[in-house]
Design goal:
heterodimer, A: mainly alpha, two-stranded antiparallel ribbon, 11 helices, B: mainly alpha, ABC transporter involved in vitamin B12 uptake, BtuC, two-stranded antiparallel sheet
Chain lengths: ~290, ~350
């Protein structure tokens, strides 16, 4: 059950990573930094609301909004300012995002310091709920799972049932043809990047409520997103969900039975998948 | 003619480096030049992979870490553990371990290229650091292992700036020359062929995977030498010194210097160390990462082939200007810009 919660969190973060990679072949090494941007921005707003008794109840929701918005804005700035005009130079883009993530992480450290923080979910989501089979379980973790399922279903609907989704999928298959059809691919790219970054920000706030965050959390989630996407397959929502589930379960089981080797277990899965199916479990052959 | 003049330049550089410790204060010898050399060595293992094989690997610091930890665990002076083997035994074992680690990374990553390789090696590097941090019984967890002093050389301790500097310089020069010789030999040519057109080289009957894995092994050996020296430089090793940021720093050095030629690694390491040392007088000591991040970003945005590329372009524009005066000279042919495109 804890594995499920972690899987939900990994899925939220990794789906944004996978989305961006799927359309634009951009490996966003700053994804962990975006997670942290969302978490800190959300926390800054959350704190203001939380200290004021009148708005106390809305503090968490405001934090979620602020975190998502901040990450999305940073994502758009990254795409417009840096990545947009070097489209197709994948390695260079990855290097740029590494540079950006160094700067973002350092500036966040300068502004917010190194102490770890945690959100307090609103009272409505706090406490425990009776769940069949497992008994009492923290409500917030159920909410987390619900959010992840919501994100998954939402993304699936967006990609498969809307015009924007149609354009995104067309862009994955043949970018230049789509451009020739008169679609403003630049705009589509920016919105996809904003969406992917927003998901990282959402992960930041939601994850920041489930476990404390500090400097270094960005590394943890960048790593998680990478491994999940490598295992699950690039650009596939189903694959990301499967990968998140697999990796989170492995991590939890590993921590329960052999804490020292839990990281090794995660990597054993990754290596096994790479050896047998280099494109990931549900990925299409490149 | 061209190659000869490059060799002369390198020899002149070597001569300058040889006498430099007598001209600058000991602080510079150990903490700037020496440090640039040992980190440059690790960066060179990456540059070697990138410029001749086309692999941008983030696992080189991890391999250096394997060597460093081997030395720390087996060495005679380590605190709090240490098997107490002699240095003469410890260091070769560390290098063998690093080479094996390099081969292992190669085996894992051999089927991938470009950004996939970058991602997988990053995951491996971070995973190793996290594993080391979690494992207390062998690696002493978060604290790492201290007091790895290194052997005595000519009766003087390894910590002596001159000893450290000259040993580092000797190791770096040998490996540097070794790389230059290697890439001109059959193995290097096959490797470069694989970088440019893997299908054709495979069609000629060369085993692509084996050559790539071997390249990772060579890079592993180089990184291992660097790792041992870095371990002596820091008098110990801890997970923080081989984690994500350490790996990224190696990449930053290589890219700042330029991925086109092994010398770029050392140039980049020197620039990095200079910024690290004098950041306080430029911006703010605490915000060193922002500064180096900005430098890195500017280099990637403006000159993807790094500091060397800037020099090369200056030279080319100068030549172009000269040749405009003498119309018979042809403009220099645009060279391939390495793997960064």
């Amino acid at each position: 059950m804890n594995g499920l919660t972690l899987a939900a969190l990994y899925f939220i973060v990794a789906s944004g990573f996978s989305l961006i990679f799927g359309l634009m072949r951009t490996v966003n090494m700053a994804h962990g930094a975006l997670y942290l941007v969302g978490a800190y921005a959300g926390y800054a707003v959350f704190e203001i609301f939380y200290d004021n008794p009148a708005t106390y109840d809305y503090a968490w929701y405001a934090g979620v909004l602020a975190g998502v918005a901040a990450a999305a804005v940073v994502g758009v700035v990254m795409q417009v300012g840096f990545l947009g005009w070097m489209q197709g130079q994948e390695l260079r883009q990855a290097l740029v995002t590494i540079g950006l993530s160094i700067i973002i992480a350092d500036q966040l450290l300068a502004i917010f310091g190194g102490t770890s923080r945690q959100f307090f979910p609103p009272d409505a989501l706090f406490g425990a709920t009776q769940v069949p089979i497992v008994g009492r379980y923290p409500t917030f973790r159920l909410v987390l799972i619900a959010i992840a399922i919501g994100v998954g279903v939402g993304l699936w609907l967006l990609l498969n049932r809307t015009r924007l989704g149609l354009m995104i999928r067309a862009g994955v298959d043949d970018r230049r043809m789509l451009e020739a059809c008169g679609v403003n691919v630049r705009l589509v790219s920016i919105s996809v990047f904003a969406l992917g970054a927003a998901l990282a920000g959402l992960g930041g706030v939601v994850g920041g409520s489930a476990q404390p965050f500090t400097q270094g959390t960005d590394v943890q989630f960048l790593l998680a997103a990478l491994v999940v996407v490598i295992v699950g397959g690039m650009g596939s929502i189903g694959g990301t969900a499967l990968g998140a589930l697999l990796i989170a379960m492995a991590e939890q089981l590993g921590q329960a039975f052999a804490p020292v080797y839990s990281v090794i277990l995660t990597f054993a899965i990754m290596v096994a998948v790479l050896a047998l199916r280099p494109q990931g479990l549900m990925g299409r052959p490149a | 003619m061209m190659r000869l003049s490059t060799n002369h330049l390198l020899l002149a550089l070597f001569a300058v480096l040889l006498v430099l410790p007598f001209l600058v204060p000991p602080f510079w010898t150990a903490n700037i030049l020496g440090r640039a050399l040992v980190y440059g060595l690790i960066a060179m293992s990456l540059t070697f992979l990138a410029s001749y094989g086309g692999f941008v690997s983030l696992a080189q610091m991890m391999i250096a870490g394997v060597a460093g930890y081997t030395v720390a665990i087996l060495g005679p002076t380590s605190i709090p553990m240490g098997a107490g083997l002699s240095w003469g035994l410890t260091i070769p074992i560390a290098l063998v371990m690093a080479t094996l680690a390099g081969l292992l990374v190669g085996v894992i990553a051999v089927r991938t290229m470009g950004i996939y390789l970058l991602m997988i090696t990053l995951a491996l590097a971070v995973g190793f650091a996290l594993y080391v941090q979690a494992n207390i019984s062998v690696f002493n967890g978060y604290e790492g292992i201290r007091n790895v002093l290194g052997p005595q050389v000519l009766g003087r301790p390894f910590r002596d700036p001159f000893v450290f500097y000259y040993v580092s310089l000797a190791v770096c020069s040998l490996l540097f020359a070794g790389v230059l010789v290697l890439v001109r030999g059959p193995f290097g040519l096959v490797l470069q062929g694989l970088r440019d057109n893997p299908r054709r080289v495979s069609a000629l009957g060369y085993n692509a995977a084996l050559h790539r894995i071997a390249a990772f092994g060579v890079a592993g050996f180089i990184a291992g030498c660097g790792g041992v020296l870095v371990c002596f430089y820091n008098i110990g090793i801890s997970p923080g010194s081989i984690g994500l940021w350490a790996s990224v720093n190696i990449l930053v050095m290589s890219v700042i210097g330029g991925l086109g030629h092994p010398i770029g690694a050392f140039a980049g390491a020197l620039i990095y160390v200079l910024f690290d040392t004098f950041a306080s007088s430029i911006y703010d000591r605490e915000r060193f990462n922002t500064l180096i991040g900005l430098v890195f970003l500017v280099i990637v945005l403006v000159s993807p082939d790094g500091f060397l590329g800037i020099g090369k372009r200056l030279k080319e524009s100068l030549q172009a200007r000269l040749s405009r005066r003498k119309p018979k000279a042809a403009a220099p042919e645009p060279r391939e810009e390495g793997p960064s495109t």
